[in-house]
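Structure (tokenized):
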């Protein structure tokens, strides 16, 4: 029988993502239902080191499930990457009676969670990032909302692009991963999708594609460019010079990280938040929760960080097949 945990903490770390609030709500309400106390740690590991720690009751998470961002705030904290910072963080947890922590964030945040776990604080990670770039899981909190936000924005750009018979290069987020770009590429019926996992930097191929599409009578040409490729504005200048077709760049930027989470993000974040508390109660530590092959699962953090996933070749080929 695992030692009973009386008090847990919850923090959000790294880039915010829509659905983080739903996860916080699920952690707080599950823990309270199981007779635990909950402490909210503000601004990620930075807030832990600054002792920005508040008591959280069930009512503190009322009316947040539909809100984007994170009510706890988030930050990036260099000091927590040092052994001294990690020891200080664990000592502060002990001072506040925090025996377990749920960390909502990406791969970097899991490293911090692993460090806390080594210092004797039971930690569980939840995948919170719009980028979908966490290998151990097919779903990350925020991805669905971000893709839908980007898709709607791209639909709008496409309207004006078609009216003016222009080419549009639209840059989406994703850090070094092309998941948002690929999903938008298919969902928006884009003519070209440039993602770090696949793009060979052969711009002439894109130029030829634009010219050939124009000859076939297409009035617009949408290129989704992942931020991992970047340089959309200069690319637009070169494409316009080479094709003679007016070309504009749009960088969607932070709008993709905000806004009201979709039902899918609220649902998965709620289940994952609750799951994290249940495995803390079982005495588990140094684990990360994921969704794989239709099930919610948990992995050892080191094992999770060593997993590899990539873009599905068949899906990428289908995107091009359908854009003709
Ligand atoms: P994400 O969690 O989205 O990948 P970051 O990589 O920025 O975002 O990491 C978030 C925070 O996690 C960092 O600011 C730092 O406080 C902590 N962190 C990242 N890497 C480590 C590490 N190797 N050891 C301890 N903490 C880390
Ligand atoms: O990880 C989420 C994300 O929005 C990435 O898509 C992007 O590369 C990065 O964060 C931007 O980070 P910052 O908020 O530090 O500008």
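Design, position by position:
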């Amino acid at each position: 029988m695992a030692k009973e945990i009386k008090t847990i903490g919850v923090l959000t770390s790294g880039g915010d993502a829509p659905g983080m609030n739903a996860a916080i709500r699920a952690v707080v309400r599950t823990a309270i239902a199981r007779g635990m106390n909950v402490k909210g740690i503000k601004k990620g590991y930075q807030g832990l080191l600054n002792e920005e720690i508040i008591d959280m009751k069930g009512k503190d998470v009322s009316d947040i499930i539909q809100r984007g961002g994170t009510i706890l705030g988030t930050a990036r904290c260099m000091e927590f990457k040092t052994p001294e910072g990690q020891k200080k963080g664990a000592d502060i947890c002990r001072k506040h009676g925090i025996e377990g922590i749920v960390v909502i964030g990406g791969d970097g945040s899991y490293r911090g969670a692993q460090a806390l776990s080594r210092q004797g604080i039971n930690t569980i990670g939840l995948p919170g990032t719009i980028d979908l770039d966490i290998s151990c899981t097919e779903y990350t909190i925020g991805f669905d909302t971000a893709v839908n936000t980007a898709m709607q924005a791209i639909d709008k750009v496409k309207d004006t692009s078609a009216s003016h018979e222009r080419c549009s290069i639209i840059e989406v987020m994703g850090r070094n991963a092309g998941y948002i770009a690929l999903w938008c590429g298919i969902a928006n019926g884009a003519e070209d999708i440039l993602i770090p996992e696949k793009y060979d930097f052969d711009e002439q191929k894109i130029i030829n594609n634009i010219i050939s599409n124009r000859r076939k009578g297409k009035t617009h040409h949408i290129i989704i460019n992942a931020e991992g490729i970047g340089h959309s504005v200069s690319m637009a200048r070169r494409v316009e010079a080479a094709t003679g077709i007016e070309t504009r760049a749009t960088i969607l930027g932070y709008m993709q990280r905000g806004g009201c989470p979709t039902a899918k993000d609220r649902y998965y974040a709620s289940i994952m938040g609750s799951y994290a508390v249940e495995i803390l109660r079982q005495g588990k530590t140094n684990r990360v929760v994921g969704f794989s092959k239709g099930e919610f699962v948990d992995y050892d953090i080191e094992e999770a960080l060593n997993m590899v996933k990539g873009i599905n070749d068949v899906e990428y080929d289908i995107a091009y097949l359908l854009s003709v």
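Reviewer-requested clarification: The chain is about 40% helix and 20% strand. Residues 13-15, 45, 76-77, 80-81, 105-109, 111-112, 115, 129 surround adenosine-5'-diphosphate (ligand 1) (CB under 6 Å).
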